[in-house]
Amino acid sequence: MYSPKFPLKIDDLRKVVNVGRLKGVWKSKVREAMRNQPIPDPLENLDFHVRLNSNCEAIEAEVCSASYIPRPPDRFLSEKSKGLCRQLVIPSVKDALILQTLSDAIWAEIRLKAPTKKRSTHRPTTDFRKQ
Question: What's the rounded Cα separation, in Å, for the pair 73 and 88?
Fold first, then answer.
């Protein structure tokens, strides 16, 4: 199920989620990040990497046909130094790849619209002790 305006946005979506970009993000960021997870995959996601092209084609088809559904992440508790626990959430490889691809595309747009270094976005600080 998708929104009525989804067909109008599909061309923009294909520019962001395509096989070339997915493969590039996998090789440059996601593969290494998945290696450094607290619960590593013993084969380091070798099955995904070996079939990278077909996996990326399947992801593109799912996202662009509005049939993509995120998988439930792995959750576990990690004890901290004073006995408190932190819940860690690890997304599936497919979800991590899509999230990173979308995040990179959004960052590219935001970065271009950031104020310049010459422009100050902060108000001058006021010393309230003098008042």
Answer: 10
